[in-house]
Design a protein that fits this description.
Elements (H helix, E strand, L loop, with lengths): L13 H15 L3 H20 L4 H4 L5
Length: about 60
C-alpha cells in the first residue's frame, strides 16, 4: 500500500501566494518620481544638518 498524503491540501496554493505577493507589492511600491523626490528631500535635510555643524566662516572662507 502506498501512502498518498497530499501536503498541499492544507497549505495555500501557489496562485494564492502569488496574489498575496502582488498585493504586498502594490501596497509598498511607489512611483519613481515620488521616491526620487523623497530621496532628494532627505539628502537636502542631511546636508543642511551637516552644514549646521560648522561655522559659516568655515564653509565660506574669506577670499583675500
Amino acid at each position: 500500500m502506498s501512502d498518498n498524503t497530499n501536503v498541499t491540501d492544507s497549505s495555500p496554493s501557489l496562485t494564492e501566494g502569488m496574489d498575496a505577493l502582488a498585493e504586498l507589492n502594490d501596497l509598498f511600491s511607489e512611483d519613481d518620481e515620488k521616491v526620487k523626490e523623497s530621496e532628494a528631500n532627505v539628502l537636502s535635510q542631511n546636508l543642511t544638518g551637516f552644514a549646521s555643524c560648522f561655522p559659516d566662516w568655515d564653509l565660506h572662507p574669506p577670499v583675500a
